[in-house]
Automatic annotation (TrEMBL):
This is Histidine kinase. The chain crosses the membrane at residues 12-31, 52-72, 84-104, 111-131, 143-165, 177-198, 218-242. It comes from Acidovorax benzenivorans. Keywords: Kinase, Membrane, Transferase, Transmembrane, Transmembrane helix. GO terms for molecular function: kinase activity. It comes from the Bacteria. InterPro entries: MHYT_dom. Residues 9-198 form the MHYT domain.
Length: 255
């Protein structure tokens, strides 16, 4: 007989998910000034690094920590293929949004297009990730709340992009990162509010198994490893940029 799954959140993990969203957003927005060279050409490395910071850490890692924070009275597993695709989608969409707006930050149409790309990227990542979640049953969606979650992501993401690219002070960038984190987390938890988990199996705690699936218990380790790898990649790029600036400054002093 079908039954609704009881769920609750672990507050400390919810707080960690918000922290990841904020840190990823802040790193990405600090890198945005390097997405364009002085001659206006695209700095592909900086664009990708910002996309990994925002899409990979700020969105993808936040999402799955948020999923670990969700306690269900039914066993669950996650498909690694779907999770990997959702990571690529998040990085691609956030990188594209930052590239679009960096070309002319004061042009309203660019801000709107970039905000749309960013919002759809965040929402797309979320629902792709949810598609990869396997339980002994199914998920029933409230489409009205789903639409609201996408609208929140687009609206708040657009405002954060405008603030990040059209202000220069550290306080404003912190505010933009905070707004971006709020957008990502509000979208995620609103989207989760649209999901009703329905159990259809007699054994609620039988983990769904199969090729490419990882249990909810192992999900935290996978996410931590991926987040660490992305943080290392970002750190290497930032260090390389710092070394280039230092060498340039030394050459100018000795010239």
């Amino acid at each position: 007989m079908d039954s609704t799954v009881v769920s609750e959140y672990r507050p400390h993990l919810v707080a960690i998910s918000f922290s990841l969203a904020f840190i990823g957003s802040l790193i990405a927005l600090m890198i945005t000034r390097r997405i364009r060279h002085k001659d206006g050409t695209l700095n592909r490395t900086a664009a990708l690094t910002a996309g990994v910071a925002l899409g990979g850490i700020g969105v993808w890692s936040m999402h799955f920590v948020g999923m670990v924070a969700l306690r269900l009275d039914v066993a669950s597993s996650y498909g690694m293929v779907e999770s990997a695709v959702s990571l690529v989608a998040a990085v691609a969409c956030t990188s594209a949004a930052l590239i679009v707006v960096s070309g002319a930050p004061r042009e309203v149409p660019r801000i709107l297009v970039a905000g749309l790309l960013l919002g759809l990227g965040v929402a797309g990542m979320h629902y792709l990730g949810m598609y990869g979640m396997k339980i002994g049953g199914y998920i029933r969606w409230d489409l009205g709340i789903v639409a609201l979650s996408v609208l929140i992501a687009v609206a708040a993401g657009t405002a954060a992009l405008w603030l990040a690219f059209n202000t220069r002070s550290l306080a404003s960038r912190l505010g933009a990162a905070l707004l971006m984190a709020i957008a990502v987390c509000t979208m995620h938890y609103t989207g989760m509010g649209a999901a009703e988990f329905i159990c259809t199996t007699p054994n609620r705690f039988a983990t769904v198994q199969g090729t490419g699936l990882v249990s909810a218990l192992g999900l935290g380790s996978v996410v931590a490893a991926c987040a660490f790898a992305m943080a290392v990649l970002i750190s290497v790029d930032l260090y390389a940029q710092w070394m280039q600036r230092s060498i340039g400054q030394q050459r100018r002093r000795t010239a």
